[in-house]
Design goal:
The complex is a heterodimer of chains A (368) and B (268).
Chain A lengths: L4 E5 H11 L4 E4 L6 H14 L2 E4 L3 H13 L5 E4 L1 H16 L4 E7 L15 H5 L10 E3 L4 H18 L2 E7 H5 L1 E5 L31 E2 L6 H21 L3 E4 L6 E4 L3 H15 L4 E6 L1 E3 L3 H8 L6 E6 L5 H9 L5 E5 L8 H12 L10
Parallel strand pairs in A: 2-3, 4-5, 5-7, 6-7, 11-12, 11-14, 14-15
Antiparallel strand pairs in A: 1-8, 6-13, 10-12
Chain B lengths: L23 H14 L6 E5 L14 E4 L5 H9 L6 E7 H7 L1 H9 L5 E6 L29 H4 L5 H6 L4 E8 L3 H19 L4 E7 L3 H4 L3 H15 L3 E4 L4 E2 L5 E3 L4 H7 L1
Parallel strand pairs in B: 1-2, 1-3, 3-4, 4-6, 5-6
Antiparallel strand pairs in B: 5-7, 8-9
Helix pairs in contact in B: 1-7, 3-4
The chains are: A alpha/beta (368), B alpha/beta (268).
Chain lengths: 368, 268
Amino acid sequence: MAQKRVLMKGNEVIAEAAIRAGCRNYFGYPITPQTEVMHYMAKKMVQIGGNFVQAESEVAAINMVYGCAAAGFRVMTSSSSPGISLKQEGISYIAGAELPAVVVNIVRGGPGLGGILPAQGDYFQATKGGGHGDYRNIVIAPASVQELYELTVEAFNLADKYRNLVMIMGDGTLGQMMEPVAFRDEEPIADVKKPWAACGRCKTEDGSVRPHNTVTSIYIDPDTLEYKNRELQEKYKVIEENEQRWEAINIEDAEVIITAFSTCSRISRNVIRQAAEMGIKVGMIRPITLWPFPKKAIAEVAAMPSVKAFLDVELNAGQMIEDVRLAVNGTKPVYFHGRMGGNLPTQKEILDKIVRIHNGETVEGGIV
Amino acid sequence: MAVVFKPTEGLTDKPFHYCPGCCHGIIHRIIAESMVEMDLLNSAVEVASVGCTYNSYEYFNCDAVQAAHGRAPAVATGIKRNLKDQTVFTYQGDGDLASIGTAEIIHAAARGEKITVFFVNNAVYGMTSGQMAPTTLLGQVTTTSPFGRDASYQGYPINVSELIANLTGAVYVERVCLTDYKNIMNAKRAVQKAFNVQKNNLGFSFVEFLSTCPTNWGKEPVAALDWLKEKMIPQYPLGCFKGEDLKFDASGNLIAGEVHAGEKEVRA
């Protein structure tokens, strides 16, 4: 039987997915263009006996997330770029204390207060750390409302599996977009035990008392802190090895490979079709995880003899392109097309560059 | 030989790192003793903060979470909202609570979070070596007010208890000191009353301890206590600012006193 599909807004689907994933805690602060996540949670959490707190600031919200995760409960917050900057303090502490938490960033244009329209200018902040210290967040970039649902559920499982923060990175387009979504009857929720949680429930069922738990990120002794950092880096290596996700589109015999995530990948799909009509074979690698970056997939495509060049398309001045270039490792030219300020690239803009690249031209700079 | 005094089970065996004459040791002890007497050791969660007590979780013999500077009330909110039967308390200094954490403490109190906040006010930043705190007295010399705190230049001290007591969500607010046996016993009573307010789900409870910092005040421990009595208490008067009529029996059940109407509606 075909699954029933419902028409929903991206932001609301994120909230619904979190609830389906067993998240009963949402702490947030209003900011455009993600507030529908909060509105949905405000209503639903009361109805299902969960916790919803409109915090006094993004800083307070992420620290509520920290406390909640430290006590062993699934928890989410959502915001948009300026708010995510404020949350970086807590995000660093969550990394240091190795707590599972899900943070949603519906990215808008920056820097500063910027604008409220879609952008991808937070790629560096999301994938290279963002706050202080050596750490990584798992960063997931859905490209449709259906994916917002499936990947948000997955985000909670990954967070628990690795005791790591998972960021869902969308943009204003995706958050505000309405598309049909098909929900599963039952979610694949990983049942991860959290014996480390500082929950004050120290008496076990047999009447014995477990040792007290502490959740902390401070290690004054340099050797202890270095050891702790080594442990973190070992964990990140395992995540890099196991969790690179991407979609490869039309790459067989492709001459030009587009790299684009989320909204840009949707526009680029149409370009692939248009190029094919002109006799140009264009493929695409769409990173689904921005960290760990799917460098294996990009390196493999770069090694294909048919591939002449790459065109990276982003809603910024060129951020993911640095990771693409590292993966391509100088074997093929990597060109760029980007828009900023909340503007989206048109198919024609991208197609024009594809044609020029296909003709063997060097495509300059790339920022329109 | 009869044992007349021994370490409390509420504290671990780890030796304190606090300076001689600092009141943290006494405050730790009365909170720890209260947890033992009220059977909270295996059900409480402490939220440690930033400053001299950043690692207080190594001393309190209960579960604990270490929080970022000033954020302990937000962290405690995230914990307590899920663990309504556990006792959740923060332990914060004046830089942490009254400076960087003003938003968090005010809003946790305004929301009537069912947590207990222990606020240690020694009128100076301790750990970072003696800078001016929001609670530094007028005229007080610190490393960042080297000519004495000047109201026209550095503003006025904040009386946090009085501020918190103005908020409807705060149910019990008291300021105590630890200058002698009588005051220490009174402070311990306040600790237990605050825990009982939380146990009875009445709302936000707050105890401010006037404390000494001989190291950063540049005083001998006894002289520091004298300075606290002579200088600090006039600025920060002792007493209960809210919830004085709340009374609890030996088992911690509310037997007298009214919580304001708004709070009752929330509880219902």
